[in-house]
Design goal:
Number of strands: 7
Structural class: alpha+beta
Strand order of the largest sheet: 1-4-3-2-5
Order of helices and strands: EHEEHEEEE
Number of helices: 2
Oligomer: single chain
Radius of gyration: 16 Å
Shape: globular
Length: 140
């Protein structure tokens, strides 16, 4: 109850970060280099789960996967830490958010297996910086 669908589905590789305008091109170029060895791959999403943000203000209804994204997280983290930015979560839950709502401590969480798994082709990484979007193909 109260869920609002999201228009753009994505798999996050970092927390929301803030850059100075003059840093954006450098960070994108470094990410492009760090991600250059990666080839497109498929991820199978098998669960519907409720996740809650660190501030405990927003809930996310998400599809989750056990497909390992460890190398992508590590490559992204290596670039971000060079710029004094935080790494992604220590043990991230790889997910696609499908809806959000305001979180209240008494809200019930959802965690159930999907009747049919969802197969996603991961072929690119997109960096959103302000109102600009940068696409990095996984061409390995």
């Amino acid at each position: 109850e109260g869920w609002v669908g999201v228009a753009e589905h994505h798999i996050s590789l970092s927390k929301n970060l803030y850059f100075q305008e003059h840093e954006i091109a450098t960070v994108v170029d470094e990410l492009r280099s760090a991600l250059s060895p990666f080839k497109p791959f498929q991820a199978t999403f098998t669960h519907l789960t409720t996740l809650v943000n660190e501030e405990r203000t927003t809930a996310f209804l998400a599809l989750t996967t056990h497909t390992p994204f460890t190398s992508l997280y590590a490559a992204t983290d290596s670039v971000l830490t060079q710029h004094g930015l935080p790494k992604y979560y220590k043990n991230p839950t790889t997910h696609i958010t499908i809806a959000t709502k305001q979180w209240s401590e008494g809200d019930a969480k959802i965690d159930r297996q999907l009747d049919e798994s969802v197969l996603i082709e991961v072929a690119e990484v997109t960096v959103k910086a302000g109102n600009k979007w940068f696409t990095i193909p996984l061409e390995g």
